[in-house]
Protein backbone atom coordinates (compact mmCIF):
# COMPACT_ATOMS: atom_id res chain seq x y z
CA UNK A 1 0.00 0.00 0.00
CA UNK A 2 1.35 3.39 -0.92
CA UNK A 3 0.65 6.67 0.81
CA UNK A 4 0.65 10.12 -0.73
CA UNK A 5 2.96 12.50 1.08
CA UNK A 6 1.36 15.86 1.79
CA UNK A 7 3.69 18.83 1.46
CA UNK A 8 1.96 22.02 2.58
CA UNK A 9 2.77 25.09 0.52
CA UNK A 10 5.14 27.39 2.44
CA UNK A 11 3.48 30.61 3.47
CA UNK A 12 4.90 33.87 2.18
CA UNK A 13 6.41 36.05 4.89
CA UNK A 14 4.29 39.13 5.53
CA UNK A 15 6.15 42.38 5.02
CA UNK A 16 5.63 45.18 7.53
CA UNK A 17 5.65 48.45 5.64
CA UNK A 18 7.31 51.48 7.20
CA UNK A 19 5.64 54.89 6.99
CA UNK A 20 8.17 55.93 4.33
CA UNK A 21 7.37 52.85 2.26
CA UNK A 22 3.62 53.44 2.57
CA UNK A 23 4.07 57.07 1.49
CA UNK A 24 6.21 55.96 -1.44
CA UNK A 25 3.49 53.63 -2.73
CA UNK A 26 0.77 56.27 -2.38
CA UNK A 27 2.82 58.89 -4.23
CA UNK A 28 4.04 56.62 -7.03
CA UNK A 29 1.12 54.28 -7.75
CA UNK A 30 -0.61 56.60 -10.21
CA UNK A 31 0.14 55.83 -13.85
CA UNK A 32 2.27 52.76 -13.14
CA UNK A 33 1.63 49.07 -13.56
CA UNK A 34 2.01 46.88 -10.49
CA UNK A 35 5.17 45.35 -11.97
CA UNK A 36 6.71 48.77 -12.58
CA UNK A 37 5.75 49.93 -9.09
CA UNK A 38 7.23 46.76 -7.57
CA UNK A 39 10.53 47.22 -9.41
CA UNK A 40 10.69 50.88 -8.44
CA UNK A 41 9.86 50.12 -4.79
CA UNK A 42 12.53 47.42 -4.55
CA UNK A 43 15.06 49.66 -6.25
CA UNK A 44 14.54 52.52 -3.79
CA UNK A 45 14.47 50.47 -0.61
CA UNK A 46 16.95 47.75 -1.53
CA UNK A 47 14.55 44.90 -0.78
CA UNK A 48 12.93 42.21 -2.88
CA UNK A 49 9.15 42.17 -2.47
CA UNK A 50 7.15 40.21 -5.01
CA UNK A 51 4.57 41.57 -7.40
CA UNK A 52 1.90 39.69 -5.43
CA UNK A 53 2.88 41.47 -2.20
CA UNK A 54 2.63 44.92 -3.77
CA UNK A 55 -0.62 43.96 -5.49
CA UNK A 56 -2.07 42.83 -2.16
CA UNK A 57 -1.01 46.08 -0.48
CA UNK A 58 -2.68 48.12 -3.23
CA UNK A 59 -5.88 46.12 -2.87
CA UNK A 60 -5.93 46.29 0.95
CA UNK A 61 -5.35 50.06 0.97
CA UNK A 62 -7.53 51.01 -1.98
CA UNK A 63 -4.65 52.17 -4.21
CA UNK A 64 -5.25 52.28 -7.96
CA UNK A 65 -2.94 53.17 -10.82
CA UNK A 66 -5.57 54.89 -12.94
CA UNK A 67 -4.36 52.96 -15.99
CA UNK A 68 -7.76 51.35 -16.53
CA UNK A 69 -10.54 53.91 -16.38
CA UNK A 70 -13.34 51.50 -17.23
CA UNK A 71 -16.19 51.11 -14.74
CA UNK A 72 -17.06 47.59 -13.68
CA UNK A 73 -20.60 46.31 -14.03
CA UNK A 74 -22.80 47.68 -11.26
CA UNK A 75 -20.33 50.41 -10.33
CA UNK A 76 -21.73 53.94 -10.03
CA UNK A 77 -19.29 56.75 -10.86
CA UNK A 78 -18.68 59.08 -7.91
CA UNK A 79 -19.68 62.12 -9.96
CA UNK A 80 -22.90 60.76 -11.46
CA UNK A 81 -25.53 63.51 -11.63
CA UNK A 82 -23.13 66.17 -10.37
CA UNK A 83 -22.03 69.38 -12.06
CA UNK A 84 -19.46 71.98 -11.22
CA UNK A 85 -16.90 71.09 -8.56
CA UNK A 86 -15.89 67.45 -8.97
CA UNK A 87 -18.62 66.83 -11.56
CA UNK A 88 -18.09 66.00 -15.21
CA UNK A 89 -19.34 68.39 -17.86
CA UNK A 90 -19.16 67.91 -21.64
CA UNK A 91 -16.62 70.72 -22.06
CA UNK A 92 -14.37 69.57 -19.22
CA UNK A 93 -12.15 67.21 -21.23
CA UNK A 94 -12.13 68.62 -24.74
CA UNK A 95 -9.47 67.24 -27.05
CA UNK A 96 -6.18 69.01 -26.45
CA UNK A 97 -7.13 70.26 -22.97
CA UNK A 98 -4.88 69.34 -20.05
CA UNK A 99 -5.56 69.49 -16.32
CA UNK A 100 -4.30 72.57 -14.47
CA UNK A 101 -1.74 70.47 -12.61
CA UNK A 102 -0.26 68.88 -15.75
CA UNK A 103 3.52 68.51 -15.63
CA UNK A 104 5.46 68.31 -18.93
CA UNK A 105 8.01 65.60 -19.62
CA UNK A 106 11.33 66.64 -18.08
CA UNK A 107 9.75 68.14 -14.95
CA UNK A 108 11.56 67.37 -11.70
CA UNK A 109 9.90 66.66 -8.36
CA UNK A 110 10.95 65.48 -4.91
CA UNK A 111 9.04 62.37 -3.86
CA UNK A 112 8.05 61.33 -0.36
CA UNK A 113 11.41 59.65 0.23
CA UNK A 114 13.41 62.78 -0.66
CA UNK A 115 14.58 61.41 -4.01
CA UNK A 116 14.44 63.65 -7.09
CA UNK A 117 12.28 62.17 -9.86
CA UNK A 118 12.08 63.25 -13.49
CA UNK A 119 8.96 62.82 -15.59
CA UNK A 120 9.94 60.67 -18.55
CA UNK A 121 6.60 60.11 -20.29
CA UNK A 122 2.92 61.03 -20.24
CA UNK A 123 0.54 60.63 -18.63
CA UNK A 124 2.38 60.22 -15.35
CA UNK A 125 5.57 58.17 -15.63
CA UNK A 126 8.49 59.23 -13.42
CA UNK A 127 11.95 57.84 -12.74
CA UNK A 128 14.70 58.65 -10.25
CA UNK A 129 17.08 61.31 -11.55
CA UNK A 130 20.10 59.48 -10.14
CA UNK A 131 19.05 56.32 -11.99
CA UNK A 132 18.65 58.18 -15.29
CA UNK A 133 22.09 59.78 -14.95
CA UNK A 134 23.72 56.44 -14.13
CA UNK A 135 21.94 54.67 -16.99
CA UNK A 136 22.98 57.39 -19.44
CA UNK A 137 26.61 56.35 -18.90
CA UNK A 138 26.29 52.64 -18.19
CA UNK A 139 23.02 51.37 -19.62
CA UNK A 140 20.03 49.85 -17.78
CA UNK A 141 20.42 49.02 -14.10
CA UNK A 142 20.89 45.22 -13.90
CA UNK A 143 18.21 43.19 -12.19
CA UNK A 144 18.85 42.80 -8.48
CA UNK A 145 20.91 46.00 -8.27
CA UNK A 146 20.33 49.58 -7.15
CA UNK A 147 22.10 52.91 -7.57
CA UNK A 148 23.14 54.65 -4.34
CA UNK A 149 24.66 58.03 -3.52
CA UNK A 150 28.27 57.49 -2.48
CA UNK A 151 28.30 60.38 -0.02
CA UNK A 152 24.71 59.85 1.14
CA UNK A 153 23.66 63.20 -0.36
CA UNK A 154 20.58 62.70 -2.54
CA UNK A 155 21.24 66.00 -4.30
CA UNK A 156 24.77 65.15 -5.46
CA UNK A 157 24.28 63.82 -8.98
CA UNK A 158 27.95 63.81 -9.97
CA UNK A 159 28.51 60.58 -11.93
CA UNK A 160 31.35 59.51 -9.63
CA UNK A 161 28.97 59.78 -6.66
CA UNK A 162 26.45 57.34 -8.16
CA UNK A 163 27.45 53.77 -7.34
CA UNK A 164 25.85 50.53 -8.49
CA UNK A 165 25.52 47.86 -5.80
CA UNK A 166 23.64 44.60 -5.50
CA UNK A 167 20.73 44.36 -3.08
CA UNK A 168 22.81 41.94 -1.03
CA UNK A 169 25.63 44.48 -0.78
CA UNK A 170 23.17 47.23 0.13
CA UNK A 171 21.72 45.14 2.95
CA UNK A 172 25.19 44.73 4.49
CA UNK A 173 26.09 48.39 3.88
CA UNK A 174 23.00 49.48 5.78
CA UNK A 175 23.40 46.92 8.55
CA UNK A 176 27.06 47.79 9.16
CA UNK A 177 26.64 51.56 8.58
CA UNK A 178 29.20 51.48 5.79
CA UNK A 179 27.68 54.24 3.64
CA UNK A 180 29.77 57.28 4.53
CA UNK A 181 29.68 60.99 3.65
CA UNK A 182 32.51 60.46 1.17
CA UNK A 183 32.10 58.36 -1.98
CA UNK A 184 35.64 56.96 -1.74
CA UNK A 185 35.00 55.74 1.80
CA UNK A 186 31.70 54.19 0.73
CA UNK A 187 33.47 52.34 -2.08
CA UNK A 188 35.85 50.98 0.55
CA UNK A 189 32.77 50.04 2.56
CA UNK A 190 31.52 48.00 -0.40
CA UNK A 191 34.77 46.01 -0.37
CA UNK A 192 34.28 45.41 3.36
CA UNK A 193 30.68 44.34 2.72
CA UNK A 194 31.92 41.78 0.20
CA UNK A 195 34.34 40.43 2.81
CA UNK A 196 31.52 40.10 5.35
CA UNK A 197 29.49 38.19 2.77
CA UNK A 198 32.34 35.79 1.99
CA UNK A 199 32.85 35.13 5.70
CA UNK A 200 29.13 34.50 6.12
CA UNK A 201 29.06 32.15 3.12
CA UNK A 202 31.94 30.10 4.56
CA UNK A 203 30.36 29.63 7.98
CA UNK A 204 29.00 26.09 8.34
CA UNK A 205 25.25 26.00 8.62
CA UNK A 206 23.75 24.42 11.71
CA UNK A 207 21.92 21.21 11.07
CA UNK A 208 18.32 21.24 12.19
Q: What would you note in describing this structure?
A:
Residues 73-104 are annotated as: Disordered. This protein is of the alpha+beta class. It has a domain at 14-66. 34% of the residues lie in helices and 11% in strands. It has helices spanning 19-28, 34-45, 51-60, 129-138, 167-175, 183-202; strands at 108-110, 116-121, 125-128, 145-149, 162-166. The strands form 2 sheets. The protein has a 3-stranded antiparallel sheet. The protein has a two-stranded antiparallel ribbon with strand order 4-5. Strand 2 and strand 3 form a beta hairpin. Helix 5 packs across helix 6 (183-202). The two termini are 31 Å apart.
Number of separate helices: 6
Mean pLDDT: 80
Secondary structural class:
alpha+beta
N-to-C series of helices and strands: HHHEEEHEEHH
How does the major sheet shape up? 3 strands, antiparallel
Rough shape? globular
Task: Count the E strands.
Answer: 5
Low-confidence parts lasting 5 or more residues at pLDDT below 50?
1-7, 68-80, 82-95
How far apart lie the N and C ends?
31 Å
Strand % is 5-15%
- Assign a percent range to the helix content: 25-40%
Radius of gyration, in angstroms, nearest whole number: 22 Å
Please state how the strands of the largest beta sheet are arranged side by side: 1-2-3
Descriptive tags:
three-stranded antiparallel beta sheet, 208 residues, Phage protein, His-Me_finger_sf, 6 helices, alpha+beta, two-stranded antiparallel sheet, 5 strands, 11% strand, 34% helix
Give the secondary structure arrangement, pairings included.
Elements: H1 19-28, H2 34-45, H3 51-60, E1 108-110, E2 116-121, E3 125-128, H4 129-138, E4 145-149, E5 162-166, H5 167-175, H6 183-202
Antiparallel strand pairs: 1-2, 2-3, 4-5
Helix pairs in contact: 5-6
Amino acid sequence: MSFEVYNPRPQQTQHRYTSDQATFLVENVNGRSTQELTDMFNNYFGINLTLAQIKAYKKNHGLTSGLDGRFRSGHTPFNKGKKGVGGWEPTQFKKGNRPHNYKPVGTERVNGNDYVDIKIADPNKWKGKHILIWEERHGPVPKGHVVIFGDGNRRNFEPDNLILVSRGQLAILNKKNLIQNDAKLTKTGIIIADIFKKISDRKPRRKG
